[in-house]
Amino acid sequence: MKNVYFIGIGGIGMSALARYFKCKGYAVSGYDKTPSDLTAKLQEEGIGVHYEDRPDLVPADVAETLVIYTPAIHELHELDLVREKGYRVVKRAFALGEVARGQRCLAVSGTHGKTTTSTLVAHIFTESGEGCSAFLGGISRNYGTNLLVSDNPVVVAEADEFDRSFHCLFPEIAVITAIDADHLDIYGDYEHVLEAFRIFASQVSGTVIAKKGVPITAADTKARLLTYHYNDPEADFYAVNPRPDACGNFLYDLHWPGGVLADIRVGTPGRVNAENSVAAAAVALTYGLGPEAVKHAIGTFQGVKRRLEVHVNKPGAAYVDDYAHHPAELAAAIASLRDIFPGRKITAVFQPHLYTRTRDFAAEFAESLSRVDKLILLPIYPAREEPIPGVTSDIILRDVTAPEKVLVEKEDLMAYLEHEPTDVLVTFGAGNIDRFIAPITKLIDNRR
Question: Is the pLDDT of residue 154 over 80?
Answer without folding.
Answer: yes
